[in-house]
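I am still learning, so would you mind making up any protein sequence you like and the tokens describing how it folds?
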Amino acid sequence: MAETISMIKPLTCHSISSYHLKALPTKLSKSIGLIRPTGPYETIVIKDTLPKYEGVGGQTLTATFDPAKNPGWTNNGDGTVSYTVTNPDPASGGAETTLRNVRLRLSFPNAKFKNGNKQIVHSNNVELTMTPYQQGPSEPATVLTDDVPFTLTSELVPAGMFRKIANNNGRIRLQPQANHLVEAFWSLAFRNTSALPVTQLVMEDTQLDERMYPYSLTVSGTLNIPLDIYAVGEDGSETYIDTLSRTKRSIENIDSQAWAQVQEQVAKVQSGEIEDTQAVAATRKYKGIRIKLPAGQKNTCQPQVLLCNIGLVS
């Protein structure tokens, strides 16, 4: 069963900058522009005509409205549903400012997604009736209406949510007598491509070559949400290391055991206590990292990119 989610984006005081519909899990968007010099609106009524669509058997079906999934929405009984937002205080910006979190979720059971290889484009009619403060007897409400094209898909999570990118062309160049200085970097990138926020997220990178150990993790760009970082042992157990956030952007020396052993061997070679051929490989404590979204947090659509750094144990 496919679903769509309609979202009203933030509006400015004197104009409707955007009325966005987001389909789950495909795109559904429309913007409506208006300049109203007389001031903000006290009430805005959103009326959505339940879309028609083609079923897998060729029949014409109507999107299903579930009141339990749509608090605040009213089924008008004529094939439309409506939602009213009101702001009695014009100084706060009007009803436009209260549209931020309005969503409409519709279901499309037995929907046909494609004709051959071509995606079927559906249409959703949306109407806004906007009543100004202190409406005069001869001043009509402003009515905006438009058709929003959208498509459906059976994929809950569209492609492109997660990427792993090697930053050194996937090659590690060893340096005789200086392998302890060799490092490899790669990026883990996450972007929520679904119309729904992600509330449970675990990213795991634990298939390191046995000669490598995790050293550091750094945020690239702005971290919009906190992320808990765990080190993963050889047996799969996890140890909490720290939390990355807007103020904590980097974690160093994740596997301090491996790093200390490497430095110990380097010191012995440099002091002449042993030959470089006598240096022994360090024993790593962790084979990788696990990144989790803390309980109670959620990711909407902001991309998060983490830069990983590993070292060599031998």
